[in-house]
């Protein structure tokens, strides 16, 4: 989890700078929600105060400097592997499956990139998996039902204060688990009382969440994305997947084989840049590197459904809802915001797909030597490929990714500090939108986006800060989810007649003469 600090010395997510500034407000005012005791009167990033609170406590209790307090949030997020592997062990009853699942969880890029950052999602990691574990234990452990139910409610409240999208995923997965175990117990003639109690509890928590968001927080912009399509389409896809699982095994194998061959063909064409998929705007090396490693766990998880159907109902249903969410997000459309939803969704669905993946590998390990060798090879491929995007992002400092994956380096931070006194009070500062949060944190100045001027061959009418990464990779513009690559010769020719106020190996400051 500390890898990015070792390499670059700073967090990589733009929101980190916002939250560290908010933590200073919490320290100054003493209010949980920052500038006001009323959460409905504060801005978006104050309404989920957990990450701000953790940063504040790290500074006040542990006497850490603001940037050092990031370590505490990262370490707490990395500990989410503990409730996750405990959940996997209770779900599968196998130490081998738990070990493989835990190893894959620990190296999956989408988890690493969330855990090494400091944002609302980071603070929600541990309570989310604690909630999933407590929900499963409440459903399965009759002797300690009340104690587990208390943990369910407390961990849910922790997520409520941490992050809204995580809360939606928690409700979805806990509802699916409760329904699955309730139906399974009913069909097998077992006691359904605790399942009903838990299901009612989840429904009540969902209703309280809706009331909290709409009537108290008045966070209409947050609840606005919870559309009928967001709820109904994954359910319809899940029902189709359930029909597939309910088929005879031979039929499932034929369907799986055909769809896998088609998928592999499409993936190969996409990787070679032969066509542009519906969900993506243009061929992008970074998207390939970030998405292709997930294909193998998805195929193995679907293979588990093909071979074993409803043998383990909870694992089957968790796999089905995860695949349904993935398919829904892929079919949503082709704008950059929906690509962001894809990355956020992968953060939640991939861990649950790793469980059937590990089950398939474990079954292969117990077969004849040739099959066992394939299992070892699959595990090695997964352990190498799953963290590849994170490692390349952090080490190369060059992948053209969105603002949610901007890598900051300590050298950039120091360089920006060095030119603070060069910024006239009456001028407009221009910089790539991805650097705006760091600049605002250091100087209180909101920088403007220069890309419109630069694309038209004009220098912006103010002070332009240009980094080595801007020259080599490009700029982020607009909403921060799109990349504009401007040829370096064209860019430098555009600025050739401007005055160069500051120059170093990694940063330049230009102004019009």
Secondary structure topology:
Elements: H1 3-8, H2 15-29, H3 50-60, H4 70-78, H5 81-92, H6 95-107, H7 109-115, H8 120-140, H9 145-160, H10 164-187, H11 193-217, H12 220-223, H13 228-246, H14 249-271, H15 285-291, H16 295-308, H17 313-331, H18 336-365, H19 369-385, H20 388-396, H21 410-418, E1 429-430, H22 436-443, H23 451-455, E2 463-467, H24 468-472, E3 475-477, E4 482-484, H25 488-494, E5 499-503, E6 507-511
Parallel strand pairs: 1-2
Antiparallel strand pairs: 2-6, 3-4, 5-6
Keywords: Membrane, Transmembrane, Transmembrane helix
Protein name: Glycosyltransferase RgtA/B/C/D-like domain-containing protein
Transmembrane segments: 67-85, 97-114, 149-165, 171-188, 195-213, 219-242, 254-280, 286-307, 314-333, 348-366, 373-397
Describe the structure.
It comes from Vulcanisaeta moutnovskia (strain 768-28). Keywords: Membrane, Transmembrane, Transmembrane helix. The chain crosses the membrane at residues 67-85, 97-114, 149-165, 171-188, 195-213, 219-242, 254-280, 286-307, 314-333, 348-366, 373-397. With 513 residues, the protein is mainly alpha-helical. Among the domains are: 3-71, no CATH class; 227-396, no CATH class; 409-511, no CATH class. Helices cover 65% and strands 4% of the residues. The strands form two sheets. Strands 1-2-6-5 form a four-stranded mixed sheet. Strands 3-4 form a two-stranded antiparallel sheet. Strand 5 and strand 6 (507-511) form a beta hairpin. The protein is globular, with a radius of gyration of 24 Å.
């Amino acid at each position: 989890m500390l890898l990015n600090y070792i390499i670059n010395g700073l967090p990589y997510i733009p929101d980190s700078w916002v939250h560290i500034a908010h933590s200073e407000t919490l320290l100054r005012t003493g209010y949980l929600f920052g500038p006001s005791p009323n959460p409905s009167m504060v801005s978006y990033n104050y309404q989920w105060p957990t990450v701000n609170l953790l940063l504040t406590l790290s500074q006040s209790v542990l006497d850490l400097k603001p940037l050092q307090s990031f370590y505490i949030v990262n370490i707490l997020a990395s500990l989410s592997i503990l409730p996750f592997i405990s959940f996997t062990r209770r779900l599968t009853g196998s130490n081998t499956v738990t070990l493989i699942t835990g190893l894959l969880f620990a190296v999956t890029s989408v988890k690493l990139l969330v855990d090494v950052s400091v944002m609302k999602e980071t603070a929600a990691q541990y309570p989310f998996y604690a909630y999933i574990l407590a929900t499963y234990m409440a459903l399965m452990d009759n002797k300690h039902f009340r104690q587990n139910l208390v943990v369910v409610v407390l961990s849910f409240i922790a997520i409520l204060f941490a992050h809204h999208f995580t809360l939606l995923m928690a409700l979805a997965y806990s509802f699916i688990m409760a329904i699955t175990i309730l139906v399974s117990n009913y069909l097998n003639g077992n006691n359904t009382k605790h399942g009903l109690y838990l299901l009612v509890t989840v429904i009540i928590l969902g209703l309280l969440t809706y009331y909290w968001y709409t009537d108290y927080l008045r966070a209409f912009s947050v609840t606005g994305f919870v559309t009928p399509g967001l709820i109904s389409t994954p359910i319809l896809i899940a029902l189709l997947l359930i029909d597939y699982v309910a088929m005879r095994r031979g039929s499932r194998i034929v369907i799986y084989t055909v769809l896998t061959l088609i998928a592999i063909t499409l993936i190969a064409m996409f990787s070679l840049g032969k066509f542009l998929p519906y969900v993506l705007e243009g061929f992008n090396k970074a998207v390939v590197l970030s998405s292709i490693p997930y294909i193998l766990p998805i195929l193995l998880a679907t293979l588990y459904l093909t071979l074993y159907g409803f043998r383990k109902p909870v694992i089957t249903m968790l796999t089905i809802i995860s695949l349904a969410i993935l398919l829904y997000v892929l079919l949503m459309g082709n704008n950059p915001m929906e690509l962001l939803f894809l990355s956020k969704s992968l953060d939640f669905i991939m861990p649950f797909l790793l469980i059937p993946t590990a089950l398939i590998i474990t079954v292969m390990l117990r077969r004849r030597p040739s099959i066992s060798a394939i299992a070892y090879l699959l595990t090695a491929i997964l352990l190498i490929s799953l963290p590849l995007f994170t490692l390349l992002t952090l080490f190369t400092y060059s992948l053209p990714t969105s603002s949610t994956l901007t890598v900051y380096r300590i050298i950039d931070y120091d360089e920006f500090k060095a030119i603070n006194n060069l910024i006239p009070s009456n001028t407009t500062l221009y910089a790539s939108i991805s650097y705006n949060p760091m600049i605002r944190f250091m100087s209180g100045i909101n920088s403007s986006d220069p890309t419109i001027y630069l694309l038209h061959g004009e220098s912006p009418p103010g002070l332009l800060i240009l980094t080595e990464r801007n020259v080599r990779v490009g700029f982020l513009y607009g909403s921060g989810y799109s990349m504009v690559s401007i040829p370096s010769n064209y860019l430098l020719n555009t600025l050739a007649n401007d005055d160069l106020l500051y120059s170093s190996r990694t940063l330049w400051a230009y102004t019009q003469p």
